[in-house]
Structures are given as structure tokens and as C-alpha cells.
Design goal:
By secondary structure, the chain is of the alpha+beta class. It is built from 6 helices and 21 strands. It has helices spanning 3-16, 26-41, 46-53, 70-76, 85-92, 372-400, and strands at residues 55-65, 106-116, 121-134, 138-147, 151-156, 176-178, 181-184, 234-238, 244-247, 255-256, 259-264, 267-270, 276-278, 283-290, 296-302, 306-313, 315-316, 325-326, 331-334, 345-352, 355-357. The strands form 5 sheets. Strands 6, 12, 14, 15, 16, 18, 20 and 21 form an 8-stranded antiparallel β-sheet that branches. Strands 1-2-3-4-5 form a 5-stranded antiparallel β-sheet, with helices on both faces. A 3-stranded antiparallel β-sheet has the order 7-11-10, with no helix packed on it. Helix 1 (3-16) packs antiparallel against helix 2. The longest helix is centred in the C-terminal third of the chain and has 29 residues, at 372-400. It is elongated and about 95 Å long. The protein starts with a helix and ends with a helix.
Length: 401
């Protein structure tokens, strides 16, 4: 029912209805009817009503030193936490607001706020751009900008969307020693010389006797000799149980000067033993424990029929077990050299519907970037924003003299 119709019905009830109920006289009923109408349709004094609710917006800049936490710096700058909510998430896509901020870092925010004619703030402010000057990560700035393809969102100053990819790499520092695809068997390569000039041991940690850890099959390379693939079959890669996955053909495997090439289903990320390993995305642990060539191994299933695999760990995070729910960035284990390994590193694998894919090129690991005309417009907007701040700083300095 429309407001006018509803008001008329209420007025009719207030005027006519009370006559049947022994209510006050006609004049009192008329007053009540006018009050009900104003409640539904507003005051008859249009000019006064517009004045009461007339809204204007103003841009406000604020800054502060980081002395404790990011949220404390926001409060010190006088910016409402609700105003900074989406900007906080955007900044968190480029740095860890808990670990990367240090005392003495600086926060700058420029936001838009709506006010009534009497100067009363209305609603939640809208951040236009924000900047963190940090010692650990340099200057991180985000700018609100509307593109033709992606609409309005925050963008980093380099034109990359300030939205974290749905999946992240499992280490903070990425150094790839072996990429995805065909490669020579690393155990057939010359062993690296240790500081003593003698070949370093290969594989997992030394073990006394001939006993193997649970889940590691007899003959797995790294603790013994690799099983021989079937005659006439092309070895593609070794399964977690130590058996070979083969192509039943009489063709010979591809060879290089270093020997036969085999499929590497992930990427090897070099890092010292004990380096924390983070979950690539939200998911559920479906496998954890010793697992053949992988050594200490974890598998996590994610949305979209994606899975991630982590191999050669020195140990697992406390309490991690099958069925554990993990969030993106949770520590799930630590780098090691267990299983079929030539040294401390993490074997990281991504599977889509059970098939291995290259994590360095998979779209889930990449952020959106601006292109074409949009990036040129964006650069001009960023330049104008910086010029405006410089003018503000000069005015503030002159007032302090």
C-alpha cells in the first residue's frame, strides 16, 4: 500500500472509528489524524524539512604515527574504525598489518564524510586513499578508482588490485629451485660439495639400521634404491607409495645431457629447515603424515575442486590432523628434507580436479591488474592526490610558524 493511501486509511480510522468507540470529540480526533499524517508523509513545512536533512560531503585528511597496532594508529588519527574497514582489508592484501608494522611507521588517510547542514556526521565515511610508510615493506598506498572492466575498488599504486588472490604461496619468501614440468631426476645429478669438499648426503635425515618410517615403502629413493619401472614403459613420475606411474608404450623417455626427463608435478621452494609453511587457502586437511617420496606430507582440499600438497616437511603444526579446518595463511608445518629430497625445501603442488597444474601460472594465485586507458587515468589520479597532500602539508607548515 502506498504511503498516501495508508495515511488516508489511518486518518479515516482516527476520524470515523472513534465515533463507534466513545472516543474524544471531533477536534481531538482531527489533531490525532494530522499527527499520523505527518508521521507517515513528513512535515508540511517543506523548507524546514529540507534544511533539517540537507546533506553535503567533505574530504578529510588525517595522519598518525604507529606506536602500537594499526587499529590504534587509526584511532589516533581520529578516523572511525568502520570508515577504515574496507581500506584495512585492502592494505592487508599487500602486507601483514600485525607482523610488518613497526613503531615509528606512519599512516595517512584521506576520506569523504557526509554531514547535515548543522554539521552532524551521517553514515560511514568513505576512504578515497590511504598510505602506510613502513620500514619493513616501504611505502604501501591504496587508491579508490573505477575502471571500465572491474568497477570501483581499491588499487595499489602500481595498478594492481588491492585484493589478495584467493590462494597464496605457502612461504613468505619464494625462491624456486625447480619448476613445474619435465626435469632430470635430481638424484642422477652430481652431488653438491659441502664445505669440507666432500659430497653432501642426499635424501632425508640419516637413520640408523634398515627400518623405515611409517608409510614409507621399502626401496623408496632417499632411504634406498628406487624400484625399477616396468620394461617397455616410459616412467613419468613416482607415486607417493614408491611405485612408478608409467606410460605403457615402447617409446623411450625424453633425454637431456643430464639423462632421462621426468614430470615434476609441483614447484620446489628453497628455504631453511624449520621455515613456517602456510595454508594456501581455506580448506580441510585430508591427508597428513609420512607418505613415500613426499616424506612428511600434507594435502588440503579447497573450494572449486582444488587441492594443495606440501612435501618433505620436517614436522607438522601442533594438532594438525585429518579433518582439521585451516584458513588461508595458517601455519600447517615446517620446511624439511624428508622423503625423496636432495636438501631442505618445500615441494608445493596444486591439483585441479585431481590433475596437477602449475601454481606459478594458475589464476587463483594472481591479482587483477589494470590495463590500457584505465592505467593512464589512474596514474593521473594518483599524481593529483599526491599533489593535494603536498599542498596541505605546506599550508600546515606555514600555520605552525
Amino acid at each position: 500500500m502506498k504511503k498516501a493511501s495508508l495515511a488516508a486509511a489511518i486518518v479515516a480510522w482516527l476520524v470515523v472509528g472513534p465515533a463507534f468507540a466513545g472516543q474524544p470529540d471531533e477536534e481531538a480526533r482531527a489533531v490525532e489524524a494530522r499527527a499520523a499524517e505527518e508521521l507517515l508523509l513528513g512535515s508540511g513545512d517543506e523548507a524546514r524539512r529540507l534544511s533539517d536533512y540537507q546533506i553535503f560531503t567533505r574530504e578529510i585528511s588525517a595522519d598518525s604515527l604507529v606506536l602500537d597496532t594499526f587499529d590504534a594508529a587509526v584511532a589516533e588519527a581520529g578516523v572511525a574504525a568502520a570508515t577504515m574497514l574496507d581500506a584495512r582489508q585492502a592494505l592487508a592484501s599487500a602486507l601483514d598489518l600485525d607482523r610488518d608494522l613497526q613503531t615509528g611507521d606512519r599512516l595517512y588517510v584521506r576520506y569523504e564524510q557526509a554531514f547535515t547542514a548543522e554539521g552532524v556526521a551521517i553514515g560511514i565515511g568513505r576512504v578515497l586513499w590511504a598510505e602506510l610508510r613502513t620500514r619493513s615493506k616501504g611505502t604501501i598506498a591504496i587508491h579508490r578508482f573505477r575502471t571500465r572492466e572491474h568497477g570501483e575498488r581499491f588499487w595499489l599504486a602500481n595498478g594492481q588490485a588491492a585484493i589478495a588472490p584467493s590462494m597464496r604461496m605457502p612461504l613468505d619468501v619464494i625462491s624456486i629451485s625447480s619448476g613445474f614440468g619435465l626435469r632430470p631426476d635430481p638424484f642422477e645429478q652430481p652431488r653438491p660439495l659441502a664445505a669440507t669438499g666432500k659430497p653432501e648426503p642426499m635424501g632425508g635425515p640419516k637413520r640408523s639400521g634398515s627400518s623405515l618410517p611409517p608409510g614409507l615403502p621399502t626401496g623408496t629413493v632417499g632411504y634406498g634404491a628406487a624400484p625399477t619401472p616396468p620394461i617397455g614403459a616410459v616412467p613419468i613420475y613416482m607415486n607417493p607409495d614408491g611405485s612408478w606411474k608409467t606410460s605403457l608404450t615402447k617409446a623411450t623417455p625424453k633425454r637431456s645431457s643430464a639423462g632421462a626427463l621426468f614430470m615434476h608435478d609441483g614447484v620446489d621452494l628453497v628455504a631453511p629447515t624449520g621455515t613456517p609453511i602456510y595454508a594456501a587457502a581455506d580448506g580441510i586437511v585430508v591427508g597428513v603424515g609420512p607418505n613415500g617420496r613426499y616424506g612428511n606430507w600434507i594435502q588440503v582440499d579447497h573450494a572449486g575442486k582444488l587441492s594443495t600438497v606440501y612435501g618433505h616437511l620436517s614436522r607438522f603444526a601442533d594438532g594438525l590432523m585429518v579433518g582439521t579446518t585451516v584458513s588461508r595463511g595458517d601455519v600447517i608445518g615446517f620446511v624439511g628434507s624428508t622423503g625423496r629430497s636432495t636438501g631442505a625445501h618445500l615441494h608445493f603442488e596444486v591439483q585441479s580436479e585431481g590433475k596437477a597444474v602449475n601454481p606459478t601460472t594458475h589464476p587463483e594465485f594472481k591479482s587483477v591488474s589494470m590495463r590500457g586507458v584505465d592505467i593512464e587515468r589512474f596514474k593521473k589520479q594518483v599524481a593529483r592526490s599526491l599533489e593535494e597532500r603536498e599542498r596541505e602539508a605546506k599550508v600546515a607548515a606555514s600555520l605552525r610558524r
